[in-house]
Structure formats: C-alpha cells, structure tokens
Specification:
The protein has 303 residues and is an alpha/beta fold. The protein folds into 2 domains: 128 residues, ATPase, nucleotide binding domain (Nucleotidyltransferase, domain 5, 2-Layer Sandwich), CATH 3.30.420; 153 residues, Nucleotidyltransferase, domain 5 (2-Layer Sandwich). The chain is 37% helix and 20% strand. Helix 6 packs across helix 7. The longest helix has 25 residues. The two termini are 13 Å apart.
Length: 303
C-alpha cells in the first residue's frame, strides 16, 4: 500500500540547495531554493537545508525526509564517506543525524546521482523500466544503477561510479580524483574546459566551451565531439556489463555531449543489446529532490 504523502526531498549540491514538496504522483507541488554556503562549512550547509525544508514539512506529521547529496554516502548511517572540495569538510559529516536533529523527524540520505536515478525511474524518462543506468554530466561525471525501483549500492555504496573508467583520449587530462586518463577527465564540464585549454590556451568554463561549439568554434566542436564519443563508447560497454533496459543521460552538459555520444553508443553497442535505448533524462533540476522524496516514500513502505 502506497503511503499518501506528500513527501519532502532535499537536494544538497555544491552550488545550490533545493527542497521540494512532492506528491504521491511524483509532481513537485512547492519548492524552496538557496545558494549552498559551502565555504562556510558543513554546519551552515545543514542549517540552510533545514531552513528550506522546514516550511514544506508544516502539517505533514512526523514522516521521514529524503536527502540527495554530493559525496559517497554510508547507506546504514547517512554519513558522508567521501566528498570532493565542492563541499569543503563534507567528508565525515553525519548528514542524517544532523538534519534529523534540526527537523525533529527521521532523515534518509543517499548520493545525489542515486537520488536522480530514483526520480527518473519513478516519474521520469525511466518510468516503467525495471532496470536503468543513469549518467549525469555536469561539473563532474556521476552514475547510478536502479533495479526494480531500488538503487544498487555495492560494498561501499558507490555502484555506478562511471567517472573513473579509463577513457582513450583522456591521457593528458586530470580527473577529479587526481589521476589521469579517466572518463570524467574528458566527458564532463571540467573535462571540456581542460580539453579546450589544452588545445587553445584559453581558460574558459565547460559551459562556455559548449556554447562556443554550438556557435561554430572548430576547437570547441572538436573538444565536445571527442568528449561525447568517449562517453558513448563507454556507455555501450557498460550496457554489456550491466544489462539495463535503458540508459539515461542528464546533467547540465548532457545536451552538448548527447549527439556525439549517441553516435558512438550506436557504433559500439554489441548486437545482443541493440534494443537498449540511450535517452535524455526528463526531470532536469528537480531530479535529485524528486528522487529524495521517493526515497522517503519507499522508506515508509519498506522500513
């Protein structure tokens, strides 16, 4: 029996925090948003998340809140096992316990890409699919696998982390993990910026590289095309490994990379998986918050 809802989902990112009130149909009924005070430290980030969520919880009883956040999350405790410098000091933060204390209700926490995959599986481009792979292309590169409505976590809560696959063409580019030659180093906003700087000496953002490619800049078009090709080839290999029903691409840089990625994906996809489509994700900026609300709902259904 599905709990009536609505539910509150919170998206804690390096630049923005979003809290959304989500109905049992997956539609966002209300949302509150603020800049994430990352430089002020974890306590300030948690205070902001709680302040956004609290008004949406008014009158909802004592049900749980779902949270999707940057970083690798310990699924048993809701604490952050590892996070990059996009949220300084975030590693080790007991997010579930701290927010539960601030909101006076249970809190369940997952990685932001895992939450986005839950949202897409529930009411997005993966709706009705039992098994999907989502890859998000933003500043970095993230991935998540959902099977039968639940995120596959693995031994360390990090299943689907496609960022660190070796990628031809990325040998001279540094990944966010500090090593060279990984998929994130070429197929991400950071990778686009690094590739363009290497080719031209011009230090611009990944977003600007994508805009220049669209405007006809040959160097930018080459960088974007190479990134999309690397991503599409990697996804074709992952389909053979994971056997999903659908592969989704989301994130701010997804639109720029999708044409070349789709071409490479089709070229490299083994014949046995020829029917597995590569599709754009559908929920946009609401995906993490919607998936976090779904996390709260499923926790109520299956505590």
């Amino acid at each position: 029996m599905t709990a009536p809802g609505p539910w509150v989902g919170v998206d804690i990112g390096g630049t923005k925090t979003l809290a959304a009130l989500v109905g049992p149909d997956g539609r966002v009924r209300d949302r509150r948003r603020a800049a994430t005070p990352a430089a002020a430290g974890p306590a300030a980030v948690l205070d902001t998340a709680a302040a956004l969520a609290a008004p949406l919880l008014d009158g909802l009883g004592a049900g749980p809140v779902g949270v999707g956040t940057a970083g690798t999350v310990d699924p048993a405790t809701g604490a952050i096992r590892y996070a990059t410098d996009s949220l300084p000091g975030w590693t080790g933060t007991p997010v579930a316990a701290e927010l539960a204390a601030r909101l006076a209700r249970p809190v369940r926490v997952t990685n932001d890409v895992d939450a986005a995959a839950l949202g897409e599986s529930w009411v997005g481009a993966g709706r009705g699919r039992r098994h999907l792979l989502l890859v998000t292309v933003g500043t970095g590169l993230g991935g998540a696998v959902v099977r039968h409505g639940r995120v596959e976590r693995g031994a360390r809560g990090a299943t689907g982390e496609v960022a660190h696959l070796p990628a031809p063409g990325a040998e001279a580019l540094r990944c966010g993990c500090g090593r060279y030659g990984h998929l994130e180093a070429i197929a991400s906003g950071t990778g686009l910026a690094a590739g363009y700087a290497l080719a031209t000496g011009d230090p611009v953002t990944g977003r600007e590289v994508a805009q220049r490619a669209q405007a006809g800049d040959p160097a930018a078009a080459t960088v974007v095309g190479r990134a999309g090709t690397a991503l599409g080839a990697a996804l074709a290999g992952l389909v053979a490994l994971l056997d999903p029903e659908v592969v989704l691409i989301g994130g701010g840089a997804a639109e720029a990379l999708l044409p070349a990625a789709a071409e490479a994906y089709a070229a490299h996809l083994p014949a046995a998986w020829a029917g597995v489509p590569l599709l754009p994700a559908a929920l946009g900026g609401d995906a993490v918050a919607v998936g976090a609300a779904r996390l709260a709902l499923t926790w109520t259904e299956h505590p």
